[in-house]
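Researcher: Structure prediction, please.
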Amino acid sequence: VQLQASGGGLVQAGGSLRLSCKASGSTSSHHIVGWYRQAPGRQREWVAAISSGGVTNYAASIKGRFTISRDYAKNTVSLQMNSLEPEDTAVYYCLARVRNRDYWGQGTLVTVSS
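Model: Predicted structure follows.
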């Protein structure tokens, strides 16, 4: 299972970033089930999920600001993040589930300055 996360960076509060998680090899984007994040000194937390049928769910802390989507043509699941807040600063990870085993992307750092 191969996942490549990208799109992180430094942005001011109120700004936007778009993260991408690209599946490659034998992995299809429909195996990618969601995004998580881990802030410094905190446990990894769930951010957003997308089902194979395209149904989405979001953590309360980001609902209305973030949008998860899947592009089958690009074999990618993206996370559009708008109205970013300093509290969104974290390393963001995508998660794929294949035959009931979880696989993580390498993480991409998002830093939001106030």
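Model: The chain has no helices and eleven strands.
Researcher: Thanks, that helps.
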